[in-house]
From TrEMBL:
InterPro entries the UniProt entry points to: Ferritin-like, Ferritin-like_SF, Rr_diiron-bd_dom
Gene3D superfamilies reported in the protein's UniProt record: 1.20.1260.10
Organism for this UniProt entry: Clostridium kluyveri (strain ATCC 8527 / DSM 555 / NBRC 12016 / NCIMB 10680 / K1)
Source organism, top-level taxon: Bacteria
Name of the molecule in the record: Rubrerythrin diiron-binding domain-containing protein
Pfam families according to UniProt: Rubrerythrin
Gene Ontology MF term list: metal ion binding; oxidoreductase activity
Domain Rubrerythrin diiron-binding: 8-155
Amino acid sequence: MTYKIFDLLQSLIDIENMSLKLYLKIEEHFKNESQEINILAKTIAKQEQKHIEYYESLSSSLKGKLDDSIDFYLYDKISGLLFEFKKNIKIPEVNTPRHLIEFAIEFERNNVALLLNIQGRLLQNINDVNNRIYRVISIIIREEEEHENMFRKLLE
């Protein structure tokens, strides 16, 4: 079986869906307790939904254009990283809007670290920086970094 960038994108969509559900649970939990946290969680959930749509659009735009395979051994290692990341997605203790923003920043930072790790594993030699899968991962990393920076600005 060969693995393609679409398999990786689907795993990233799964992570975004998990984080969307997490923020929706936080929103629901604080519905009657804290309007600020409720609204903030709802806003972050909308951002996660936009990420899901972005990844789905990216995947659709690459269909038929990017059929490069990911080595089975590498994909196996990447799958392990993705599994561990997903396993550690848990609803945080949130007491203030600041705690929620800090959690969102940390989540995005960890997501970027995961993507950098994946990208690094895909680099087998110096010419791989020009390979199309590597470039797609670079686009995704930039998107995630922008997401993290957006949350950082909320703390300023």
